[in-house]
Amino acid sequence: MALPTGQCDLHLRLRALALAFLVLTLPYHSSVEASWWMLGLPNSIPGANEVTPMNYKEVCKTMHFLNERQKELCVINESILMSVGMGAKLGIDECQHQFRMSRWNCTTNRDTSMIFGNVLAISSREKAFIYAVSAAGVAYAITKSCSRGDMNECNCDYRMRERRQPKGNWQWGGCSDDFQYGEKFSRDFVDSKENAEDVEGLVNLHNNEAGRRTVRSRMLRVCKCHGMSGSCSLKVCWRKLPPFRTVGDALLARFEGASHVKLIERKRKRVKKLRPVHKDMKPPNRTELVFLEESPDYCERNDTLGVMGTRGRQCNRTSMGMDGCRLLCCGRGYQTKVREVEEKCQCRFVWCCSVECEKCRYKREEHICN
Ligand SMILES: *[C@@H]1O[C@H](CO)[C@@H](O)[C@H](O)[C@H]1NC(C)=O
Ligand SMILES: *[C@@H]1O[C@H](CO)[C@@H](O)[C@H](O)[C@H]1NC(C)=O
Ligand SMILES: *[C@@H]1O[C@H](CO)[C@@H](O)[C@H](O)[C@H]1NC(C)=O
Ligand SMILES: *[C@@H]1O[C@H](CO)[C@@H](O)[C@H](O)[C@H]1NC(C)=O
Ligand SMILES: *[C@@H]1O[C@H](CO)[C@@H](O)[C@H](O)[C@H]1NC(C)=O
């Protein structure tokens, strides 16, 4: 059976990450605000040797951007560091993909330990998205690693077979992704940073959970036919993680419908809850994203906020969306540049078996925000 492409992709990235770890050298000098997201950009961790089954416990201990609980989890197995790094990278890459056409494009800063810059100082929708997508990323990457057999603690999910027999002519079999373990790990690892006693913590925990539930609700059932050729007399099915892009798309929709909330405290019952700022809105359920503060407009460079602004960004002259020149350039206007590009063209098939192309030069208009 061929590897599903998603898994293949992950394998490649994992290898890249492993290579990246090889060039790191210890020790790492920390800063206060640093976070486990650093693991998603291993090249930016100055220091750290090759991570091996022999030394990974030491490596875990020297990663000052992990808190105590995270260090404990780090030593469960030598593959944890890499899986969490994969998860962080999945989240960061997905964020950059989903926001590539927006004023804030999920810029990461490799030169400081604050990967998303000060943007996280505001409890905005954008922050909600970052938390959700990266908590989802960790649950996702750990689950993949379980299915690959990288850890003693988890495996493929074989419990499917013992549950209720499915209706119809198919049965559970093969390796079902065990999302339950990945989800639990993500709760333990990612959520350990948060304090459920303060409002920021409650919001972050809510968004982390929304991210994980988004993955869970999009798990797929895939099947394979057995039996005499083409007869499909026996169908074997297993549960599989969706492509991570599906999770990003769903979270973007939740970003757009996110709830502006505030903290409600009932002192006597000692309950703390997040409730919509606007009284006529329904309380958010566990899958929705929540935020505390309106976002800045991200139009102008603001180093205090770590916002790059949209000057110099490429916009689309005909789009009415956020990537359209009017919205993206915040009304400052834009300049049009003509660039010459070379592409293959007039390709034809030559018997047998090659494709011959000519090189064509095109002029392409590019619009750049003032
Ligand atoms: C990590 O998991 C692998 C695969 O199950 C196992 O071979 C290895 O011994 C584990 N390492 C530790 C430290 O438990
Ligand atoms: C949560 O709320 C959203 C939007 O109101 C709704 O679309 C969704 O079905 C709800 N999910 C659950 C599990 O209730
Ligand atoms: C940056 O943003 C902060 C917070 O919104 C604001 O107080 C400050 O004036 C801004 N700085 C600049 C240079 O625009
Ligand atoms: C985001 O936009 C800035 C310009 O504001 C650009 O330099 C950067 O490459 C973009 N980042 C991504 C990930 O697209
Ligand atoms: C610009 O936007 C239009 C309309 O949304 C779209 O059809 C076109 O493909 C976009 N062009 C580029 C270069 O993205």
Task: Please give a structural write-up.
This protein has 370 residues and is α/β, with parallel strands linked by helices. The chain folds into two domains: 27-309, no CATH class; 311-370, Wnt (Wingless and Int-1), C-terminal domain (Endo-n-acetylneuraminidase fold). 33% of the residues lie in helices and 18% in strands. The protein is built from nine helices and nine strands. The chain has helices spanning 5-22, 56-62, 68-74, 80-98, 125-148, 179-190, 199-216, 244-256, 325-328; strands spanning 170-172, 220-226, 234-240, 259-266, 271-276, 290-291, 314-315, 334-350, 354-369. It has a three-stranded mixed beta sheet, with no helix packed on it. Strands 5-4-6 form a three-stranded mixed beta sheet. A three-stranded antiparallel beta sheet has the order 7-9-8. The longest helix has 24 residues, at 125-148. The N and C termini lie far apart (52 Å). 34% of the residues are buried. The model is unreliable at 1-32 (pLDDT under 50). The structure holds 2-acetamido-2-deoxy-beta-D-glucopyranose (5 copies). The site of one 2-acetamido-2-deoxy-beta-D-glucopyranose (NAG) has 6 residues, from loops. Keywords: Developmental protein, Disulfide bond, Extracellular matrix, Lipoprotein, Secreted, Signal, Wnt signaling pathway. GO terms for molecular function: cytokine activity; frizzled binding.
